[in-house]
Amino acid sequence: MRKAWIVATAAVGAGMGFVMVLVVGVYLVAGNLAGGIGGGSVGLAKGAVPAAYQPLVQKWGNLCAAINPALLAAQLYQESGFNPNAKSPAQAQGIAQFIPGTWATHGVDGDGDGVRDVWNPNDAIPSAASYDCELASYVKNAPGNPTENMLAAYNAGAYAVIKYRGVPPYAETRNYVKTITTLAKSFAAPVTRVDPSKQAAAAITYAQKKLGTLYLWGGNGTADQGGRFDCSGLTKASYDSVGVSLPRVANDQYNAGPHPKREELLPGDLVFFSDDLTNSRAIRHVGIYVGGGYMIDAPRPGAVIRFDPIDTPDYFGATRVTEDGAKALPTSV
Predict the structure, then answer these.
(1) Among 33, 58, 154, 276, which lies 20 to 30 A Cα-Cα from 213?
(2) Spatial separation of the C-alpha atoms in residues 319 and 292, rounded to whole Å
(3) How is 274-325 classified by DSSP, letter by letter?
């Protein structure tokens, strides 16, 4: 949540062979490809930010050099899951989760209507960017990465960053910096191809062993559920089997890594489907890509886990799962 420290600081159907040939072949081709966000103004991945907020995030994410639109999106997602009505037990409010004292000091009238409204994303998103940039200005002379120093100031206070000449040696603060910078990669449009996942082939193997299993809404594959799954339960279990813990629901799984283009898909990528192609929060289905335009998925009640084509009108996009990306996801949003 937006912390109040600054006030004090101011005062102070195919077989295993088919799947594995695809996996090995694609990985040999892709093994040396690099990925990343790149420099300059960072573009947002398709639909990663709800369409209603995308222009605001793109505009205000360029307010100062220490932030970018993907980083601002990552903060908003971690704070509230883009929910403008979010309220925490600590009284943090709105899409950016400002507490009242911090809002009173640092809230801005982003839409120029004469009112600073913490519940209005047109004010709260500009305020979040403005607050970040203010923090960055306080620690601008500290050695190190300006963005990391800004995030550290957000978590631990500007005094700590100045004292330690960079990100302070606090586990919580260092974890926060890593979490947000990692999560930002999920919201950025990649400028090059992204690296393949090391765990992807084994995740496919797990999913393939479940072919023919009857769908169960809310199914996690446990014994009391007869080993049955729903769509995101299957993808979660597949990656759990290789030590990568994904969130339970599909629209959060979308943020577990960067987003390859359709022509760049590799086996093991998660593929997503939605009736609203402008908003990742509206994703309703997920499967595991196996190559050749097909995925393994648990499609719907009454059906079994099977191979399905991905090239349908509701295809939303894909995520290349990374360990760090999965770890960065909040446990609840």
Answers:
(1) 276
(2) 17
(3) -S-TT-GGG--EEEEEEETTEEEE--STT-BSEEEE--STTEEEEE---HHH
Give pTM, 2 decimals: 0.85
Q: How far is CA 66 from the centre of its chain?
A: 20
C-alpha–C-alpha distance, residues 62 and 55, integer Å = 11
Render 191-251 in DSSP notation, one character per residue.
Answer: SS--PPPTTHHHHHHHHHHTTTPBB-TT-B--GGGTT-B-HHHHHHHHHHTTT----SSHH
Question: What gap in Å lies between CA 79 and CA 179, rounded to an integer?
Answer: 12
Give the confidence band of 40 by pLDDT, cuts at 50, 70, 90: very low
Query: Does residue 256 sit in helix, strand or coil?
Result: coil
> In this predicted model, what pLDDT tens digit does every residue of 237-291 receive, in sequence order?
999 999 999 999 999 999 999 999 999 999 999 999 999 999 999 999 999 999 9
29: number of Cβ within 10 Å:
11
Query: How confident is residue 195, by pLDDT bands cut at 50, 70 and 90?
Result: confident
In whole angstroms, give the CA distance from residue 80 to residue 262: 29
**Structure letter (DSSP) for residue 262:** G
Using only the alpha carbons of the chain, give its radius of gyration: 21
Task: Please name the residue that has the structure tokens 């600054």.
Answer: 6
**Cβ neighbours of residue 261 closer than 8 Å, sequence gap 6 or more:** none
- In the three-class reduction of DSSP (H, G, I as helix; E, B as strand; rest coil), residue 187 is classed as helix
Coil, strand or helix: which one is 164?
coil
For residues 306, 312, 313 and 318, what is the CA-based torsion angle, rounded to 10 degrees?
80
